[in-house]
Amino acid sequence: MALKLNKYTNIKKAVNEENIDVFYTSDMKDELELFEKMNLDVFSREIARRFSKFNSNYKKIINDHAKKNNLENIAILAAHTKKIKGNWFYFNEDAGSPIQEWIDKVDGKYGCLIIYLCNSEKDELFSEKSPLFILSRKERETLV
What we know:
Helix content: 25-40%
Strand content: 25-35%
Order of helices and strands: EEHHHEEEHEEH
Number of helices: 5
Oligomer: single chain
């Protein structure tokens, strides 16, 4: 049984924006102070906006792939993680679920998946339909 995640949708406010669904654990809610709608709005827009600035090709890749596959919007997973027996899990207190299961569940439903995790290893997660971007520690520190 998958660990229950909180979900918040930031509805686009401009024509050139996309809706952003943020999936997060209660631990991350506390750590990132995502207690109010405004904080969730700022977090989600800043992750999406700043992430696309790390490499100007990201936005083009995302847009081209999304159009080709009729995908829209962005999903962000924000959670603490831990590697257990070679697999990455997101967790909340003592409960956890495989990150790859979350990716598999949302893959093909979004134009882009952004993984905002602690202790992530980029080469161990994958998607088949939605572009998947995993933020490095350096990228995460500059975002929030």
